[in-house]
Structure formats: structure tokens, C-alpha cells
Specification:
Elements (H helix, E strand, L loop, with lengths): L1 H19 L7 H7 L14 H10 L3 H14 L2 H19 L5 E2 L2 E5 L2 E2 L2 H5 L1
Antiparallel strand pairs: 1-2, 2-3
């Protein structure tokens, strides 16, 4: 089942990327860099695991990505649309790699299970 879920996430990532790649309003190299921008949410862990989980999850939540996307359409703001798409793509790629939203007790404790050293202990 785990493999099937990862394949589903990869299909969502590729499908979304193919659907929107031709309309990227900035250089492709910048798109690749921005694709990893949501990981800056992990900087919240400098203030502790509870704050870190919150900041990380805000920048990795696909529901927020969809809201940003449609808000950008409503406000006619292409950069808001692209912020939503980038968060969506990044989060989908993370899930395909086994990284999920974080619980407030530890960075390694995610909704998809333990990662890193925590995973090797179980």
C-alpha cells in the first residue's frame, strides 16, 4: 500500500507539473529554486519543535496551497497563483519521498510515520 500511495503522489506531481509548466511566468532555473522554498518553514525549529511544526506545516499544507491558488485567480495575482502551485508541487513531492506534515513533538514524527533516526529505531 505504501508503494501505491507514493506512486499516486508521483502521478499528482507529474500531472500538475505538466499542466502548468508551460505557463511559468519566470525563468525555469528560478522555478527549480522556488520549488524548494517551502523548506524554509523548517527554520521555525530554531524556536522549538512546536513552532517549527507550525511553520513547516503552513508551508507544506496542500489545503493552503489550493486556497492560495484560487485566491490568486480571484485577485488576478499571478504570483499568488504560483505560490499556491509551488507549495502544492513541493508538498506532493515531499509526500512521494515519505516526508509528511510534522507533529509538534519532533521533526521526525510525521503524519506518514517516522523519518530519519526515528524510523530506524522502529
Amino acid at each position: 500500500m505504501r508503494t501505491l500511495l507514493k506512486l499516486e503522489e508521483i502521478a499528482i506531481f507529474v500531472g500538475t507539473l505538466l499542466a502548468f509548466y508551460g505557463s511559468i511566468p519566470f525563468p525555469r532555473w528560478l522555478f527549480i529554486i522556488l520549488l524548494f522554498a517551502p523548506d524554509f518553514g523548517a527554520l521555525g525549529y530554531l524556536a522549538g519543535p512546536r513552532v517549527g511544526a507550525f511553520t513547516y506545516n503552513v508551508l507544506h499544507h496542500r489545503g493552503i496551497a489550493v486556497v492560495l491558488y484560487f485566491l490568486g485567480i480571484y485577485l488576478e495575482q499571478p504570483m499568488v497563483i504560483w505560490a499556491g502551485l509551488i507549495i502544492f508541487l513541493h508538498s506532493t513531492l515531499d509526500r512521494a519521498l515519505g516526508f509528511g506534515l510534522k507533529y509538534p513533538d519532533s521533526f521526525q514524527n510525521t503524519h506518514l510515520g517516522a523519518i530519519g533516526r526515528a524510523a530506524s529505531k522502529s
